[in-house]
Amino acid sequence: MSLISLFINAGLSVGGAVICYRLILDYIPIFIARKMYGNDQCKVSNAPVPEPMGVICAAVYLIVMFIFIPIPFLEWIGNETETFPYAKLLAILSGLISISTAILLGFADDMLDLRWRHKLLFPTLSSLPLLMVYYVSGNSTTVIVPTIVRHLFQPIVLLPVTINISFIYYIFMGMVIVFCTNAINILAGVNGLESGQSLVISASVSLFNVVQLIRLDSENTTGFWHHSISLYFLLPFTACTAVLFFFNKYPSRVFVGDTFCYWSGMTLAVVSILGHFSKTLMLFFIPQTINFLYSIPQLFHFIPCPRHRLPKYDPKTDTVSMSKAEFKKSELKTLGKLFMTACRTIGMLHVEEFEKDGELYYCINNLTIINLVLKFGGPMHESTLNSVLMAIQVSGTVIAFFIRFYLASLFYDVVE
Amino acid sequence: MSLISLFINAGLSVGGAVICYRLILDYIPIFIARKMYGNDQCKVSNAPVPEPMGVICAAVYLIVMFIFIPIPFLEWIGNETETFPYAKLLAILSGLISISTAILLGFADDMLDLRWRHKLLFPTLSSLPLLMVYYVSGNSTTVIVPTIVRHLFQPIVLLPVTINISFIYYIFMGMVIVFCTNAINILAGVNGLESGQSLVISASVSLFNVVQLIRLDSENTTGFWHHSISLYFLLPFTACTAVLFFFNKYPSRVFVGDTFCYWSGMTLAVVSILGHFSKTLMLFFIPQTINFLYSIPQLFHFIPCPRHRLPKYDPKTDTVSMSKAEFKKSELKTLGKLFMTACRTIGMLHVEEFEKDGELYYCINNLTIINLVLKFGGPMHESTLNSVLMAIQVSGTVIAFFIRFYLASLFYDVVE
Fold it and tell me: Quick one: signal sequence residues (chains A, B) (predicted)?
């Protein structure tokens, strides 16, 4: 039955993709007429690009999910002998609540430029139903202790194979949600980047689920459900995102907007929680994690941060190069200095020093991995830049699979 | 426990109202800066009025609900002896999904002017989870047969006291949802009207629930739950809407937008379905139902319909009067003629006839109860008009209570 549901889900996903394609074409002129567009800062022409087109795909996604929801439960409908699997339906509905409110938040942000504190609070609260359902469904909050750690501690204390970290696990899941909903938004600004990275991650996570389904014991119905429910959410997302990428890739005919970034991040986070692989999900977010860590000094203003950190466009050569931030040495805080010294030493930062009006100035590349690619690769065409970033994302996937399926077996006796 | 939950819900509602008040003040300049405003067509000044402010209140509403959700279930948390009431949590979550997608739809409509078919399709589909949960929770689809009908049919056939109308009941509930999400949107355009009517209805339905709770047998835990869950959704809604009305009443400092109309309609529909009083809810929508029936000829174009049907403003007297639609007699369809003749006969239509270029023209009032009030009452100040409409809405409530608690007992042996 679960397999049939998966096939129906895949069919609906294809249908959703077709509808996305038509609706995007349909709504491009409407967006322009309503003045909902952005201007591409890395192009010679200043033609308006409709934004946020992600809301159209997100709406189609929700519709596909609404139509799909009853499918996995058909065998119980009209069947009075077996009790209805309430916990499973609860899992799906709680996931959908988080996703639909993330879409609403993203769309509101696109339209209103919400304040930061509201943007952080809303996804945290909207994930409460999800975490509550996780709790009442009696889901595990135990983590497996790596074999090596147990060996190390053996002379002192005999560690158990698993430890129940209880509420810390909920805090971790909450952080996964907040991180994911913002991570894609931070790594953005190049044609096709937001949709492309999401597409790579969702395709990778889908593949991961399929691999797990194949490896599973036929007895393990719980595991089967976890990876099925992930795919129920992921396949329509991957399909809708693929269409969006088609329009968003260089040269962008549409921009995806914050709507897409929140939708995408929340969907991936939800899937990992419902599928019980939130730790594994983080492996697929390695490029985003590096970008986030590298961005911290500017995000938290240890180092001055300009309004935009997009690459700089040179219309003469039709290439983009790294954008820079210029500031007085005296503006730099202690943590900023530490970070600069460390990054400079390992060659991860472009630094120029000069004097003006008797004061020492620094000029460094803006702290995103996009600018880091341009530091090492030099000026390049925007589509090349996006290809390099996609290649990094795909390498991330390869590393994730390597860690999850090879390294993990070295560190853990038991792998779920 | 349920009572404590109700008090906590009421407390959170008050908190929500305070936050709404602050956020509206906070976001008024942001809406203006982002060019999200409308112009009040019934004012001398053409100052921009922020729109759709409903989205701010709706977001606060969702947050209040997210915080509240765990409360009614606290007694089961950590209690392993009793099974968790999954069906109850499912009911709340499915209601929230419908509401949050209605908010998203409304906001998208405000920003994009969605096509009609998309606007009808989306709420229908987003209510699927709600109806599915209704189904799997084994909820009743029986209706009580009026005593008088049974007596009439007695010589021919012995009708049962209740009839299970099965899937027809689901179609009815689906229609309630589509009707409610659009009914408030159709009766709109006067300062304070959208928020005012919703406030009257939600306060009335809340009162109805309280009355039912008081009348209930202490044994009737199901009934207790139905009216409690209604109040869980209604109290925060009433509180947030009251604040919105404060800003939206004459002279409007904010407009509520389609966002509010969809949110409001969906919330009331959801509440009636979860509380098992969808037929009773229709009684509270009497003014909206009359407005809808009266509007049908223009909505379905039996009679030509101008772009706007708002009352006409006269800056000299600072009053509004009925707006009119002018069209050739030859443009009128058969159904339109029938309607005009019928309404004219009973004095429910203002009709002028005149000739231009040898053709006969009609000029009639636009078909809304707003214009009907102005036909009977003559030109009046906009705030007076809204007060009259509010009075009509309150009378509707009185009639609803009369029908529900007095007339129904004459027609039905058993009243739920």
Answer: none
HEC string of B303-328 equals CCCCCCCCCEEECCCCEEECCEEEEE
Domain boundaries, chain B: 2-299+385-411, 312-382
Q: How far A207 CA sits from the closest chain B CA (Å)?
A: 28
> What pLDDT does B415 receive?
45
Q: Name the residue among A62, A93, A105 with its Cβ closest to that of B93.
A: A93
**Is the torsion defined by CA of B214, B217, B218, B221 positive or negative?**
negative
Q: Which has more confidence, B293 or A123?
A: B293
Reported as a pLDDT band with limits 50, 70 and 90, residue A307 is confident
Q: Rounded to 5 degrees, what angle do the CA atoms B104, B110, B113 make?
A: 105
How big is chain A by its Cα radius of gyration, in Å? 23
Question: What SS3 state is found at A85?
Answer: coil
Burial class, B214, CB count within 10 angstroms (exposed 0-12 / middle 13-18 / buried 19+): exposed
Q: Which residue of A100, A105, A112 is in closest CB contact with B34?
A: A112
Q: Which residues on neighbouring strands pair with residue B163, listed in sequence order?
A: B143
Cα distance between residue B126 and residue A76, in whole Å: 22
* Range in B140-149, B217-226, B243-252 with the lowest mean pLDDT: B140-149
> CA of B86 to nearest chain A CA: how many angstroms apart?
6
Is B89 in Cβ contact with A36 (below 8 Å)? no
**Model confidence at A78, in pLDDT bands (50, 70, 90)?**
low
At residue B318's C-alpha, the angle toward residues B313 and B321, to 5°, is 40
Residue A415, pLDDT above cutoff 90: no
Interface test with A, best of B71, B82, B89 (most A CBs within 10 A): B89
**A178 to chain B, minimum CA–CA distance in Å?**
16
Tell me what pLDDT residue B319 has: 94
- Mind giving me the DSSP string for A140-185? --EEEPPHHHHHHHTTT----SEEE-THHHHHHHHHHHHHHHHHHH
**Minimum-distance CB partner of A97 among B30, B93, B105:** B93
Q: What is the pLDDT of residues A326-342, one digit of tens each?
A: 999 888 888 888 999 99
- Taking CA–CA distances from B86, the nearest residue in chain A reads A86
Provide the total of helices (H) and of strands (E) in chain B, helices listed first. 16, 9
Q: Please name the residue of chain B whose CA is at the shortest distance from the CA of residue A60.
A: B122
B28 contact residues in A (CB cutoff 8 A): none
Most B-contacting residue of A19, A112, A133, A274 (CB-CB within 10 A), to test interface: A112
Shortest Cα–Cα distance, A263 to chain B (Å) = 13
DSSP string, B142-172: EEEPPHHHHHHHTTT----SEEE-THHHHHH
Strand partners, B320: B313, B380
Closest CB to B90 among A89, A121, A122: A89
